[in-house]
What we know:
The complex is a heterotetramer, with 2 copies of chain A and 2 copies of chain C. Chain A has 7 helices and 10 strands. By secondary structure, chain A is of the alpha/beta class. The longest helix of chain A is centred in the C-terminal third of the chain and has 16 residues, at 169-184. The radius of gyration of chain A is 17 Å and the shape is globular. Chain C has 2 domains: 2-60 and 164-299, no CATH class; 64-158, 2-Layer Sandwich (Alpha-Beta Plaits), CATH 3.30.70.100. In chain C, 69% of the residues lie in helices and 8% in strands. Chain C has 10 helices and 4 strands; from the N terminus they run αααβαβαβαβαααα. Chain C has helices at residues 2-11, 15-19, 26-64, 75-90, 103-114, 140-150, 160-202, 204-212, 217-249, 269-297; strands at 66-71, 95-100, 127-133, 154-157. Chain C has a 4-stranded antiparallel sheet with strand order 2-3-1-4. In chain C, α1 packs across α9 (217-249), α3 (26-64) packs antiparallel against α10 (269-297) and α9 (217-249) packs antiparallel against α10. Chains in contact: A-B, A-C, B-D, C-D. At the B-D interface, α2 and α3 of B face α2 and α8 of D. One adenosine-5'-triphosphate (ATP) sits between chains A (11, 16, 34, 36-42, 85) and B (129, 132, 136-141, 166).
Amino acid sequence: MIELENVAYSYGGGELLSDMSLSISSGAFYFLTGPSGAGKTTFLKLCYGALVPTVGQIRIFGNDVRSMSRDDVAVMRRRIGVVHQDCQFIDHMSVQDNIALPLAVSGNKTLAEDANIKELLAWVGLTKRAKAFPPELSGGERQRAALARAIIMSPDVILADEPTGNVDWEMSERLLQLLLELNRMGKTVLIASHDLSLIRSAKSQVQARVLRISNRRLQLAGANL
Amino acid sequence: MIELENVAYSYGGGELLSDMSLSISSGAFYFLTGPSGAGKTTFLKLCYGALVPTVGQIRIFGNDVRSMSRDDVAVMRRRIGVVHQDCQFIDHMSVQDNIALPLAVSGNKTLAEDANIKELLAWVGLTKRAKAFPPELSGGERQRAALARAIIMSPDVILADEPTGNVDWEMSERLLQLLLELNRMGKTVLIASHDLSLIRSAKSQVQARVLRISNRRLQLAGANL
Amino acid sequence: MKAVLVFFEGLRADGHRDRVVPSTGFTATLTTLTAGAMAFLIVFALALSFAASRLSDRWADALQGTATIRISAPADQMNIQVERVLAILSTTQGVDAAKALTVEEQQALLEPWFGPDIPLSNLPIPRLIEITQTDDGFDAQGLRLRLSAEAPGAVLDDHMRWRKPLVQAAQRLTWLGALAIVIIAMTSAAMVMLAARAALAANAQVITVLRLIGANDAYIVAAFVRRFASRAFIGAVIGVVAGAVVVLFLPAETANASILTGLRFQGADWLWLAIVPPALACVAFVATQLAAQRVLGDLS
Amino acid sequence: MKAVLVFFEGLRADGHRDRVVPSTGFTATLTTLTAGAMAFLIVFALALSFAASRLSDRWADALQGTATIRISAPADQMNIQVERVLAILSTTQGVDAAKALTVEEQQALLEPWFGPDIPLSNLPIPRLIEITQTDDGFDAQGLRLRLSAEAPGAVLDDHMRWRKPLVQAAQRLTWLGALAIVIIAMTSAAMVMLAARAALAANAQVITVLRLIGANDAYIVAAFVRRFASRAFIGAVIGVVAGAVVVLFLPAETANASILTGLRFQGADWLWLAIVPPALACVAFVATQLAAQRVLGDLS
Ligand SMILES: Nc1ncnc2c1ncn2[C@@H]1O[C@H](COP(=O)(O)OP(=O)(O)OP(=O)(O)O)[C@@H](O)[C@H]1O
Ligand SMILES: Nc1ncnc2c1ncn2[C@@H]1O[C@H](COP(=O)(O)OP(=O)(O)OP(=O)(O)O)[C@@H](O)[C@H]1O
Ligand SMILES: [Mg+2]
Ligand SMILES: [Mg+2]
């Protein structure tokens, strides 16, 4: 689905990420770890086309990111659900409307999906806060709303950046179950996280691969977790 | 230092927090846990005077929050260092300037403190990013910058809301050491966190009390962690 | 072509899309208020400009309408010459009416200078013929040639000497009015543009979020363009109405100040006001479109 | 008292505090550009207003300066009466100069109506005395009384009939100019206020952060007030200069259009321009202060 070939990226100073090659296959479950500031968020941004590699090639759904037009990128993003580390919402729209926004934006508004939203809200534990506005949410509630928004379109790939950084252990278990469920339905999942117990818990339920960024390179961590 | 007497708080709907009484004594080390949305951030806001309780009394450094003027609140905040869950910075000033801002604002700009900033930046691992602007920081770097800003004034009380939500285990250990060090110097520390291993690690080094919000009430969790 | 599509996409109503742009808050009202203030100013510029042009029309009318022919001739020739000149005038294009003044009328003309007792009837003074011109006026040079050929004692005075400076003054007044309206209209367009861009800059987060969740550029631009153009329109309507009300309540022209018309709009002038809101809405439309595309250009 | 302290605190320079408010970016330039555009408009309003008032002054001068006395008397009495009237005039307050017209001059006056050949010297026509008034003018009623007592054949014509409508027109022009400047100045103040508030709304995060880290209200307000007032000042200077340059390059008054003065500023008029930037800076100062205090009021 997403292929990286000798990719390097630099924000202008030295190279932050170098010589990364990876092919994310359909239906796989990945974790991405690495110390703070290693480049996890940067890596994810490369994967959804928000950044263009300084060196090398990235193909998303078979298309080279460099050759994509702006509208191609927009359409491609409807097939990739992203939970951003700093989840941003449209502050004057209710949580429910924010979660449904990708549907409205892509013109896929049907009643079936209306039911879908209710279910999704229940799963992430936001049923009671559905009518609230994003600035009234707690930190964990924001992250859960962002996750719900990322998966409402039933995308082929889900990229989540620290989706459990602000939620308690029970809730993060619950969110993990949701992601595992989606993975079982054939979606590809890539989670950037430093929560080792979350990774361990996932590994016990699915064949998860763990990627690690260290020394500017992407490494496949073995069973050494 | 901070005393709560039968405090309750509600955002307008039902009561979120009820009947809380607590006296945070000087030099103590507290953890605050509870599920996402329980009211941890709300509790901290009550403690630094950003919210006024709907019921009951809060005294900060001996003054009733209800009777404080706006300038009293401003001066009081210079004695309380807060790490906010959604750390906000002044985006057009460098990280270093942002961290030094409380000094400038209170008029305490001296050379001694200039050296202090360098040391602090080194401790939170931001020496290399000192000249960067906040929007260029990674999630973990933002949290560390927020912590540095909270303690630059050497406040009497440090309130930290999920200060390690986005940093890896090694870095959070390091930040914990910094907070423990400050606590040994006599500062009061209160950390809202759901990271159980962090709490365990702290308990092995200091006599930390763990507060838990459940069923809208504040409870002192025993050794059952 | 693409721009045209975006334009029509921009005008199609869409409930959800409209909600994406905040409808309240201070930056939201900025465009409305600016368009209102500017429309208010434009109303006054229009009023000034119309007043100036009416004033200059009146001056021109009052002066351009008349000319005089003076006939000096021996007493016995006089009446023949007068007849002949009147005949010439009746076939001259641009002459509406011509009339020989009676002795009493000539006396009245001279009264301010010589008092009522001057014994004109005994004097060999010239006779005067007053000409009223049509709107187009006549060809003074041609008329002079004909007169010198057929009535050598007749001299045409088209009052050019008196008229010229006043006509020039009137033209300059009109010109000042037009200049004022051009400058105020241009500044208004710039201000509305500025307000739309500022409001858009304040809504950068909405654009970022929309782009991140897969909205294409046309959708985002359309959402803002519709909102801002309609806000500018509403603001301009309010401003025009407020301006018109104030103009209406200005002291009306007093009866004896007839040489200078009042500031009020008259007749079809009011229709000009109807152009202001759509014009400002168009400015906001274009400004928002350009600004939104620029903001989007910075987002990957 | 507190407001005064905040005012002075606001004007004290402080390197660090100044940096707290962004110095670049679009919302930052909003205040500058708005003040510039508005100052530009004010320059034109001033130019129009001055031109109108100069025009009305000229009209008033040209008309108010003169009056005529007509003396009808038997031929032998004429010179005595003329002498007597001149004597009266020389002791009348408000009369600058008085001069009896010669026969040739009277003939020239009549020429437009009667041609050059009128035999005035043989006629018992009245004599004319031309009076030039001082700025204050004379008391026409009083003079008439004295004349009727001492020189019964003298009639005063103060040209009131001709003067009145033109003086009224001129007054109305001045009034329109003043109205234009008041309206544009008020709208400008409103726009600068609006821009400052919008820029402040866009900087809400800075205010929030400052309040959270313990800055007191005076510090925060001062930081914004200084920045925005100086931005408005700089913008207004730019606008005034731009407006002045454009006014300078407007076609100058042509030699023969002397009745209507040009749009250029003359002499001390230029000094008025110097008032515009400080005035707009004051408006921005007050607006920012009020708006910042309102934003702060919402923050605990
Ligand atoms: N826009 C930018 N301009 C310059 N440097 C940047 C920018 N964004 C990120 N960086 C730097 O690049 C490095 C990697 O950032 P990134 O956000 O990818 O880290 P991360 O692995 O996600 O860290 P964390 O776990 O703290 O979120 C950091 O040092 C950061 O300061
Ligand atoms: N301004 C507000 N208006 C209304 N409700 C609010 C507001 N702020 C927070 N809430 C609600 O109050 C509850 C408690 O919020 P709070 O931020 O204190 O939770 P928390 O314990 O910090 O959660 P987390 O661990 O997710 O950060 C949440 O359900 C939240 O939606
Ligand atoms: Mg990150
Ligand atoms: Mg919280």
